[in-house]
Amino acid sequence: FPGGNVTRPGEVVPRRFVSVLSARGDEPFRRGAGRLDLAERTFTDAAPLAARVIVNRAWGWHLGKPLVATPSDFGAQGERPTHPALLDDLAARFVAAGWSMRWLHREVVLSATYRQASRPRDEGLAADPTNRLLWRANPRRLDVEAFRDALLQAGGTLDLTPGGPSQDLDQPDNARRTVYGRISRGRVNPLLQLFDFPEPTMHSPGREATTTPLQQLFVMNSPFVRGQADALLRFAAAAPDGGANVDDAAKVAAMYRRALARDPADAEARRAAAFLAGGGTLAQFAHALLTTNEVMFWP
């Protein structure tokens, strides 16, 4: 379409690889739809760039920020890498490891950088307040899919059945992992919209995290969250031996272990006891526990 005008098509252009990345000229693809040729050329002619793109995205998945801030644009208009030597090294070793995604994930999550705490340090804040040099972990919120799954897991209702057709996330009985939620290009689910799900009608290299009052109103008033809080309470009320004699302190501890994977600190146990003594209910406490940042943020 010369000039982008779809009403005046020009000559048919044979399928071929991107010229700027081609090391073997512009010979057209000749097998089937050309997908196999495209894949082979991507991982031969364009291997150095493809490896860097993959490594950059994997780093961003695990660390919250990619080494190149524009993961879909490695050209002249894109951002420069914050750690170019690290990007080159990981890309070269990724190729040497046979393009193994398992190797790449393991290499990143076992690194000292990934395993850092998120606590700030005065000297770090003074030298690099935006943490561009990765001297600590970046505190970050779970994606909406992981957040919904965490709520279902806390309530003990998460359905881990793999595969199958998608389901509407608004269905009251839908306890499947959120990755199996139905995505409509014309009407994005309100929960996904609230928590920064990207626009499904266009390419999106990443998600822009927002913080709005509507997000907190959702966790405070949503029937879905209240339902998971009730399920959490039912789990905590069940004694290990099957009996019913479980005191409130034991129920609070069980809810902490289920929702946050830890026991409550002494101060937290005292606050819970004071809340219940002041007229609060265990159902309200379970709901409040699911609205805390510790549920919504990466540990």
Written account of the structure:
With 299 residues, the protein is an all-alpha fold. Helices cover 44% and strands 0% of the residues. It has helices spanning 35-42, 47-63, 84-96, 101-109, 122-127, 144-155, 190-194, 213-221, 223-237, 248-260, 266-277, 282-290, 293-296. Helix 9 packs across helix 10. The chain is globular and about 80 Å long. The model has no long low-confidence stretch (mean pLDDT 90).
Q: How big is the Rg? A: 25 Å
Number of strands: 0
Q: Stretches where pLDDT falls below 50 for ≥5 residues? A: none
What would you call the shape?
A: globular
Helical/strand content category = mainly alpha
Beta-strand level of the residues, as a percent range? Answer: under 5%
- Main sheet overview: none
CA-CA gap between termini: 51 Å
Helical fraction equals: 40-55%
Q: What string gives the helices and strands in order?
A: HHHHHHHHHHHHH
Q: Average pLDDT value?
A: 90
Oligomer: single chain
Q: List the total number of helices.
A: 13
